[in-house]
Design goal:
Elements lengths: L2 H5 L2 H6 L22 E3 L21 H7 L2 H17 L4 E3 L22 H17 L3 E7 L12 E3 L2 H8 L1 H9 L3 E4 L3 E2 L2 E2 L4 H11 L5 E3 L8 H6 L15 H5 L10 H15 L11 H14 L2 E5 L13 E5 L25 H8 L4 E5 L25 E7 L7 E5 L3 E5 L1 E2 L3 E2 L7 E10 L4 E9 L2 E6 L2 E7 L7 H7 L3 E7 L4 E10 L4 E9 L6 H11 L2 E7 L18 H13 L3 E6 L14 E4 L7 H10 L31 E3 L8 H6 L17 E12 L2 E10 L5 E10 L10 E11 L4 E8 L5 E4 L4 E4 L2 E10 L2 E10 L5 E3 L1
Parallel strand pairs: 1-2, 2-3, 3-5, 4-6, 4-27, 5-8, 10-11, 10-24, 24-25, 25-26
Antiparallel strand pairs: 6-7, 9-26, 12-13, 12-17, 14-23, 15-16, 17-22, 18-21, 18-23, 19-20, 19-22, 28-29, 29-32, 30-31, 30-35, 33-34, 35-36, 36-37
Helix pairs in contact: 3-12, 4-5, 4-12, 5-7, 12-17, 13-17, 15-16
């Protein structure tokens, strides 16, 4: 420990255990401690405002990166994020998310790296290491079992101790051993204890067993008891100023309850983080083209080809003919999910329709929407909004309670507005006396006659006036609770108005607020759909030589604080797929989704490509894959079941007592399918690509469980360059009292030209042959007979080896 930390006055040391403001830690010139500025992630670097002003590069989502199975590539994406952080003067990124996708209904499934602890650990750490190579901290989240969103602040994950350590804590253990600098706790409880106060996980396992020297911080407003949190291993309360830690400990007179040494230890960990950040790189503007290339490469590498009948893909871009591009996501794609890490795209981002049209040089490309996109709150900004002076945008004015004078004015270009702690003209929201008033004014010209559906909501009392008449009111006044969740859930009221085509419509929304941590206002408008969209699309499909049908979700389908209710596509989209496939057998369906879906409506499609949420380079990456310029390099990091009832976990709703039972135990995802001998629609690890490969055993070396090396010869037996993912699964010795245990333990990626071959190496260590013993609070070796299964997917293995492990850890290969 730095001697300077011990010499700091108590008041200064205590102050370091809470943030200084919304996004920064406290500084101390006396010990050379710089303030650490943070930003949310992982798909982009936010500016902290969660609105249209936070323009940044947008990478593929976590599930898309996981589908690449390519640690080296994921690391380069992490470097892009590190570069963006440097550009925006951010020292710490709140990412990646290393929780597990227990259920396909998980609201933040898009942000996760899948359903397998080993894959999550390896790729999640690759991303974090890429960020840290730039001298920027990766704050790994959310320790632990924040695997669902429903009632997340009250949810209590009830999970067996060995399962907690071997499954849910494993990605965090891997990161700690590998060199993570910081971690962030979840909002939830685990076995009755809040994550921010969980001494077993934070103090005993993370800092004790693993000897980890990094910093543990709370999620935003996720600290409830400063003394309990500090004593159990939390080092930093965020955001600041602290309500429970920092100077609040002294003000509350509770310092005597804090265990000896914990203040010094917490301060030291913050100083260690600050020291590590002193080696930050310099941002290089000239490297922007390379960054965009990485994002396009990563988007394509994560695209998973589920079906390709008759080798319809790749298209011959130069062959004359009509290509029909159909579906709402062709022109309004979902690039990202709805979290506080949402970023705004820069100008000039090409949609899938634009990119495909440009790449298919020899073809005529025509588009039909088919069905409208189904937003929870259709963005008001889809309309050409203008202010009273005729200029584009929205007028936002702020007033204090009882004052006629305008305290502040902004011109905005978004209809979802959020304020954290501060509001222009109103000031500190936590110190607000009386009411604050926000008025939003804008206009648009009705594009067609009919019934318009307006959505209005907020964290106070919201009134909506259309053409001077009050048409709706909503009271979303905030009580104590998950205010961050409410800002994402966006509760609202729906009202309808009949409008005439060509008439100017004047909108006025008024929000009245009282004291709170944060506030929000959201407005939306559903425009009457054009007539015969579906029939026009079907007619175009019947005329076309091939159809590219792009369907999927909207940016408010996957949300922080809200879990899904179904794996099915919107009914209108499912009907569109059936109708189009019925008239054109050469239909390629692209799924712009980020969780496992019900694939029953896809049976008649010639090809199916899962694109996930691919970030800003969706269009160019998709065009490259369709034309054969790029390989659809993805393999599934999750299981797509045949029926919803087949998933080992479905509901994520806690009981009335807040308990969410992790009843599946060790058997998460594909592990459960394997144990039950249940065949999914598409299995974990599956993906076709455009090339074909053979795998052959070269050698297995290793006399003990400490290090086993398996070498596999991979040969490209096709006429195309392609990518192979060699996957090694371990089948553990059977126990009479439990189902069989099959799990991923190693994998490797190789890219080969036609006819080329290469030996790849797969490694196993002692962790692969041990389990956590709750009684001993240690990992213990499991001796006996193991099977190594190696191949293309969990249910497509082509090599099988037997290993015998002795009680002393010796290995014999049969």
């Amino acid at each position: 420990m730095h001697s300077e930390v011990r010499e700091l006055p108590l008041e200064q040391k205590v102050a370091l255990t809470a943030g200084n403001d919304m996004w920064s830690t406290c500084a101390s010139a006396q010990v050379g401690l710089d303030a650490v500025r943070m930003a949310d992630g992982p798909m982009g670097v936010t500016g902290g405002r969660v609105d249209e002003r936070d323009v940044a590069l947008l990478t593929p989502c976590g599930l898309s990166l996981a589908a690449s199975w390519d640690a080296e590539l994921v690391g380069r994406v992490g470097e892009v994020i590190g570069d963006e952080a440097l550009r925006m003067n951010v020292q710490a990124m709140l990412a990646p998310n290393l929780n597990l996708m227990r259920s396909p209904l998980a609201g933040r499934a898009f942000e996760l790296f899948g359903e397998d602890p080993h894959l999550i650990a390896a790729l999640g750490w690759a991303w974090a290491e890429g960020v840290q190579r730039k001298g920027v901290a990766s704050v790994i989240k959310h320790v632990v079992c924040n695997d669902s969103e429903t009632d997340r602040r009250n949810m209590n994950a009830v999970v067996a101790d060995d399962v907690l350590r071997d499954v849910y804590f494993w990605p965090f253990e891997y990161a700690a051993k590998s060199g993570a600098w910081a971690m962030l706790t979840g909002y939830n409880k685990v076995n009755g204890v809040l994550c921010a106060e969980h001494g077993q996980v934070l103090q005993q396992w993370l800092k004790g067993d693993l000897g980890w020297d990094g910093l543990v911080m709370s999620d935003w407003f996720g600290t409830h008891d400063g003394v309990s949190s500090l004593n159990n291993g939390l080092d930093l309360e965020m955001p600041g100023p602290g309500r429970h830690m920092g100077s609040a400990l002294l003000a509350n007179g509770r310092m005597a309850e804090v265990e000896s040494g914990r203040i010094d230890d917490a301060a030291q960990r913050l100083l260690t983080l600050s020291d590590r950040l002193k080696n930050r790189h310099r941002y290089q503007p000239a490297h922007q083209a390379q960054r965009l290339e990485v994002l396009e490469e990563a988007a394509a590498a994560g695209m998973v080809l589920l079906r390709n009948e008759g080798q319809i893909l790749p298209f011959d871009a130069g062959t004359p003919g009509l290509l029909a591009v159909i579906g709402p996501n062709a022109t309004a794609p979902c690039y990202q999910g709805g979290t506080f890490a949402k970023v705004a795209l820069s100008d000039g981002i090409r949609t899938p329709l634009e990119a495909v049209s440009a790449r298919m040089t020899g073809r005529t490309v025509r588009h039909a929407e088919g069905v409208p996109a189904e937003h929870r709150i259709p963005p008001l900004t889809q309309l050409p909004l203008f202010r009273s002076e005729g200029q584009p945008g929205i007028d936002v004015t702020y007033r204090r309670d009882g004052e006629e004078a305008v305290a502040a004015h902004e011109i905005r270009h978004a209809s979802s507005l959020i304020w954290f702690k501060q509001m222009p003209g109103v000031g500190n929201l936590l110190a607000l006396e009386g009411e604050g008033v926000v008025e939003v004014r804008t206009c648009f010209v009705a594009p067609r006659s009919g019934e318009y559906v307006f959505h209005l909501g907020g964290t106070g009392v919201v009134d909506l006036h259309v053409n001077g008449q009050r048409v709706g009111s909503f009271d979303g006044s905030v009580a104590e609770g998950d205010i961050m969740g409410k800002l994402m859930q966006a509760p609202h009221q729906v009202v309808t108005c009949q409008l005439e085509e060509g008439r100017t419509v004047e909108l006025l929304a008024t929000l009245r607020i009282t004291r709170s941590l944060a506030h929000g206002l959201w407005l939306g408008c559903g425009v009457p759909a054009k007539e015969d969209l579906l029939e026009q699309a079907v007619a175009l499909a019947a005329e076309a030589d091939e159809v590219l049908l792009i369907v999927g979700e909207t940016a408010d389908a996957g949300l922080e604080s809200v879990d899904r209710t179904t794996t099915q596509l919107p009914a209108a989209q499912a009907e569109l797929i059936r109708r189009v496939c019925a008239v054109n057998s050469r239909t390629v369906v692209v799924l712009n989704v980020a969780h496992p879906i019900d694939t029953s409506c896809l049976q008649d499609a010639a090809a199916v490509l899962v694109a996930w949420y691919p970030g800003q380079e969706f269009g160019p990456a998709l065009a490259g894959v369709l034309a054969g310029d790029r390989e659809p390099g993805g393999r599934l990091p999750v299981t797509f079941a045949r029926a919803e009832s087949d998933y080992p976990v479905w509901s994520l709703t806690p009981t009335s007592d807040g308990d969410l039972d992790y009843h599946e135990g060790w058997w998460v995802g594909y592990r459960s399918f394997a144990a039950r001998d249940l065949h999914p629609a598409f299995s974990f690890g599956y993906g076709l690509g455009y090339a074909r490969f053979s795998q052959a055993l070269v050698a297995v070396e290793g006399a003990s469980v400490d290090r086993i090396e398996v070498r596999i010869n991979v040969t490209n037996v096709s006429g195309r360059k392609g990518k192979e993912v060699v996957q090694l699964y371990l089948l553990e010795p059977s126990r009479r009292e439990e189902p069989s245990r099959l799990s991923l333990k190693s994998f490797a990626v190789t890219h080969l030209e036609p006819g080329e071959q290469q030996d790849v190496q797969l490694f196993l260590g002692a962790d692969a042959f041990s389990r956590w013993c709750s009684r001993q609070q240690a990992r213990v070796l499991v001796s006996g007979g193991y099977e190594l299964l190696i191949g293309h997917a969990v249910d497509d293995t082509v090599l099988r080896l037997s290993l015998q492990v002795s009680d002393q850890g010796g290995v014999s290969i049969r």
